[in-house]
């Protein structure tokens, strides 16, 4: 007897009509989808990884995909790299077509710049585990429902974004004012919620990680690894809620 294919479901809804995959843009070998891939695999949501760092061709149109996901990377969105204008154009197209878009760190900065915000130096480097908190407003109440007012996430950035016109801020932090915003089906995060144990070890063990000097906003590699398993378990609870809210846009 033939085995029936597993039909992807989000919030109990059948996604068998979702024939197109998500496009996940990876900008550095160590900054792939991480825990997001685990979430998508559990839900049988199709996706393809576009390895920008390996020279994969950029899509000609966002309409080939059910949504766009932009991961982090060590570069600046203000660098003269050929794929950056292409990414900005895809984000604008997706936003104009009401396709869901999700950005992590560099990905959030790409979304901000594409939608009229600016990206520039943060007052300090922010690296390692640190707290963020919800801002006031209806959007934050909706998107962060079920989460505490303050929770710990992972950071690794020296630049930050502004919140574009018509977008609603979600999160803020003591060392970086803008940690997340939403506009329609688009969610932009300055922080990292996609981290896994392997990613923590890889980033902490990199030359940049080994060279870190502790400050109020920067943790050493050893500090990042301290109690990482418990911190990751809590972070994944945050990610489960935020990813579920974003994925629900695929059914809306």
Count of helical regions: 8
Shape: globular
Task: Pick out the low-confidence regions.
Answer: 1-8
Distance between the termini: 35 Å
Beta-strand proportion: 25-35%
Helix/strand-derived category reads alpha/beta
- Write the element-wise H/E pattern from the N-terminal end onward: EEEHEEHEHEHEEEEHHHH
* Fraction in helix: 25-40%
Give the number of DSSP strands: 11
Give the overall average pLDDT: 93
In short:
This protein is 30% helix and 25% strand.
Give structural notes.
- By secondary structure, the protein is an alpha/beta fold.
- The chain has eight helices and eleven strands.
- β10 (180-183) and β11 (186-189) form a beta hairpin.
- α2 crosses α3.
- The two termini are 35 Å apart.
Task: Give the SSE layout.
Blueprint: E1 9-10, E2 13-14, E3 22-26, H1 35-42, E4 47-51, E5 67-70, H2 83-96, E6 101-104, H3 106-114, E7 119-134, H4 138-143, E8 150-161, E9 168-172, E10 180-183, E11 186-189, H5 197-205, H6 207-210, H7 221-225, H8 228-248
Parallel strand pairs: 3-4, 3-5, 5-6, 6-11
Antiparallel strand pairs: 1-2, 7-8, 7-9, 9-10, 10-11
Helix pairs in contact: 2-3
Properties at a glance:
single chain, 252 residues, alpha/beta, 9-stranded mixed beta sheet, two-stranded antiparallel sheet, 8 helices, 11 strands, 30% helix, globular, disordered N terminus
